[in-house]
Amino acid sequence: MARIAGVNIPTGKRVPIALTYIHGIGPKAAETICNAVGIDLTRRINELSDAEILSIREHIDANFTVEGDLRREVQMNIKSMMDIGSYRGLRHRRNLPVRGQRTHTNARTRKGPAKAIAGKKK
């Protein structure tokens, strides 16, 4: 089993699909990595040599922010928005939707289960 950026990559999948298991690498970035390293998109992880896996690993380390570093960076960005008191930071602080969604009827994922309001009968 190949290990890249601290993630066990599934061996039976094609290389671009397997690379998307790494947090911070999507389909387009995975394709770009394969082209930059010179690996055919139809090859599978178990067909790669150790040298090819090493070249993928080095390319990702040099050009991408992935996994723990990316998660930490995103959390720091959210924390800085909360600290400066921007609108998005306030929405994060109140645990409400950040990107302009309605909250009158929906947003149950973000707000949690509905709470009953006493004396609200018709």
Automatic annotation (TrEMBL):
<dbReference type="InterPro" id="IPR027437">
    <property type="entry name" value="Rbsml_uS13_C"/>
</dbReference>
<feature type="region of interest" description="Disordered">
    <location>
        <begin position="99"/>
        <end position="122"/>
    </location>
</feature>
<dbReference type="InterPro" id="IPR010979">
    <property type="entry name" value="Ribosomal_uS13-like_H2TH"/>
</dbReference>
<comment type="subunit">
    <text>Part of the 30S ribosomal subunit. Forms a loose heterodimer with protein S19. Forms two bridges to the 50S subunit in the 70S ribosome.</text>
</comment>
<keyword id="KW-0694">RNA-binding</keyword>
<dbReference type="GO" id="GO:0000049">
    <property type="term" value="F:tRNA binding"/>
</dbReference>
<dbReference type="GO" id="GO:0015935">
    <property type="term" value="C:small ribosomal subunit"/>
</dbReference>
<keyword id="KW-0689">Ribosomal protein</keyword>
<dbReference type="GO" id="GO:0006412">
    <property type="term" value="P:translation"/>
</dbReference>
<dbReference type="GO" id="GO:0003735">
    <property type="term" value="F:structural constituent of ribosome"/>
</dbReference>
<dbReference type="InterPro" id="IPR018269">
    <property type="entry name" value="Ribosomal_uS13_CS"/>
</dbReference>
<comment type="function">
    <text>Located at the top of the head of the 30S subunit, it contacts several helices of the 16S rRNA. In the 70S ribosome it contacts the 23S rRNA (bridge B1a) and protein L5 of the 50S subunit (bridge B1b), connecting the 2 subunits; these bridges are implicated in subunit movement. Contacts the tRNAs in the A and P-sites.</text>
</comment>
<keyword id="KW-0687">Ribonucleoprotein</keyword>
<protein>
    <recommendedName>
        <fullName>Small ribosomal subunit protein uS13</fullName>
    </recommendedName>
</protein>
<comment type="similarity">
    <text>Belongs to the universal ribosomal protein uS13 family.</text>
</comment>
<dbReference type="GO" id="GO:0019843">
    <property type="term" value="F:rRNA binding"/>
</dbReference>
<dbReference type="GO" id="GO:0005829">
    <property type="term" value="C:cytosol"/>
</dbReference>
<dbReference type="InterPro" id="IPR001892">
    <property type="entry name" value="Ribosomal_uS13"/>
</dbReference>
<keyword id="KW-0699">rRNA-binding</keyword>
<keyword id="KW-0820">tRNA-binding</keyword>
<dbReference type="Pfam" id="PF00416">
    <property type="entry name" value="Ribosomal_S13"/>
</dbReference>
<dbReference type="InterPro" id="IPR019980">
    <property type="entry name" value="Ribosomal_uS13_bac-type"/>
</dbReference>
